[in-house]
Amino acid sequence: MSQRRARLPLHTQVLIGLVLGAIAGLIGSVALEPKLLKEIGDNYAKPIGNIFIYGIFMVVVPLLFSALALGIAELGDVRKVGRIGVRALLMTVLLSGIAVLLGLAAVNIFNPADQLTTEQKSQLVASYGNQEEAAKRIEAAQAAKADDPPLFGFIPRNPVKEAGRALEGGLLPLMFFSLVFGIALSMIEGEKALPMKQFLEGLFAVSLKMIDLAMKLAPIGVFALIFFAASQLGADLLKALGLYVVLVVGVLAIHLFVVYSLAIKFIAKRNPREFFAQMRTVMLTAFATSSSNATLPAALRAAEEDLGLPRRISSFVLTVGATANQNGTALFEGIAIIFLSSMFGVTLDLTQQFTVMLLAIVAGIGTAGVPGGSLPLIGLILTRFGVPAEAIGLIMGVDRICDMSRTVLNVTGDMTIAACVTAMEPKEPGDVAPADD
Ligand code: ASP
């Protein structure tokens, strides 16, 4: 029996944690005295949930640094492939930009957080007990910044110091440092760059492993966090979460079938329906694994055998794209950040939403192509707006379905870009003709 339970996939366990947590929370909210409920929440549910969340956050700095520096160093290799690289890069920025804009527009029009009343939102803030704490931390961070503030808010004088306050607003300068580090790394000759690349790869692998370990606590952590939130907010929380999933999946579908189709039809000059049919297996693999990296071999094979894309283009675009081009993730991040912020009563103005857009595009590059790779970054970005990073606990239980869907977009986006770049490039003798069309 226990063996069978151990074999349940982690995401199913997390979903069970969510459902049980919600049921227990709802029952608790009607059956228990408010005082007792608060005691259970404060003394048990919250600390248990936080063990899991903190386990993730302690890895965020090394993870972000290594993923971004490596991603950029790979993109920096763009020069080596010349025009193909530059065109792929431009398409990446264009498609990611449209993706985030779509996500932001949608969540501004239909914000699932509207399911909660203002009182419920304040209750949520108060129950996380973090509002004052967060305000204090941000104030302290700002005061600390006074001695050597990052230039224009993002060019750090002391990156180590910014790393130290990554959860209190040092995120942007840290990202900037990682970007420049990656660019410089890509400019160094192969031999000399190798040890640093290997070090970063090692750091990245260890960080991912640590996230893996923390994720083992996810079923219990999500149970505790959702119990805690559901006991305060009741069924409205579940309604908001349900609508959030519908919104994420719906907007991803629009990006896939409308934006990608237009790019495939007008830039790649192919028939979108055939294109999607030819990469059906790749899309299914992405959906099943929730991992761009795990889907890469299938994508490389399909690019050559089913779509007839020249290897000189597809191998570069798809390999770099598996980590650096994540349209679906960028779109999702826009929605998740605005949704969670407004759950905590924080409304982001236009300038802040613009910042979210930039952060989401950069975070897309720094997101590991593994299941749930974007969640730690979302937590980090939230703290920038005074929302407790623990807020990601709310979406964790329903994340698998969003993750499966956004990974399909991430991988299809790489393939779309490869097809578009192929159409822009002059044909070479060795190129196979497109399979169809
Ligand atoms: N699972 C996604 C991928 O591998 C990353 C994420 O958005 O969490 O593409």
What does it look like?
The chain is 78% helix and 0% strand. The model has no long low-confidence stretch (mean pLDDT 82). It has one domain: Proton glutamate symport protein. By secondary structure, it is mostly helical. Helix 2 packs parallel to helix 12, helix 6 crosses helix 17 and helix 15 runs antiparallel to helix 22. The radius of gyration is 22 Å and the shape is globular. Bound molecules: aspartic acid. Aspartic acid (ASP) binds next to helix 22.
What's the main sheet like?
none
SSE series:
HHHHHHHHHHHHHHHHHHHHHH
End-to-end distance, in Å?
53 Å
Count of discrete alpha- or pi-helical segments spanning 4 or more residues: 22
Which structural class matches the secondary elements? Answer: mainly alpha
Mean pLDDT: 82
CATH architecture: Orthogonal Bundle
Q: Give the low-pLDDT segments.
A: none
Total beta strands? 0
CATH hierarchy, class: Mainly Alpha
Estimate the strand proportion: under 5%
Primary descriptors:
mainly alpha; 22 helices; binds aspartic acid; globular; 437 residues
Give a topology summary:
Blueprint (H helix, E strand, L loop, with lengths): L1 H6 L2 H22 L2 H24 L2 H17 L1 H4 L1 H27 L8 H10 L3 H15 L13 H6 L6 H17 L2 H26 L2 H16 L1 H33 L4 H7 L1 H10 L2 H14 L5 H14 L2 H17 L6 H16 L9 H10 L7 H5 L2 H26 L13
Helix pairs in contact: 2-12, 3-11, 3-12, 4-10, 4-11, 6-13, 6-17, 6-18, 6-19, 6-22, 7-12, 13-18, 13-22, 15-16, 15-22, 16-17, 16-22, 17-22, 18-19, 18-22
